[in-house]
Amino acid sequence: xxxxxxxxxxxxxxxxxxxxxxxxxxxxxxxxxxxxxxxxxxxxxxxxxxxxxxxxxxxxxxxxxxxxxxxxxxxxxxxxxxxxxxxxxxxxxxxxxxxxxxxxxxxxxxxxxxxxxx
Length: 118
Fold this sequence. Notes:
The protein is mainly β. The chain contains 1 helix and 8 strands. It has one helix at 73-85; strands at residues 2-7, 17-18, 33-38, 56-61, 69-71, 95-98, 106-111, 116-117. β7 and β8 form a beta hairpin.
């Protein structure tokens, strides 16, 4: 499966950073270092000057059975409920935690003139 990671830093290799993490649907926060990954390739917030709050988009290819990949079920369920409650028809992006360093297959940089990732 193809997943995406967004960052303001340019990396040679993606390394987990300290973040809040829910494991396997539990409420507790483990405080472990993780990478946040999503199925959404277009995550951006365009500012008035055409800039984005993320400079880089990393494309990653992973097997869905990878032991370091964990779905953020609580957040994904909340997004699903939101779509159903408001009868929204657009596809829901899924969110994941990744517990290890990994390589990416492509990197794109935000283009302020075109207002998109190249």
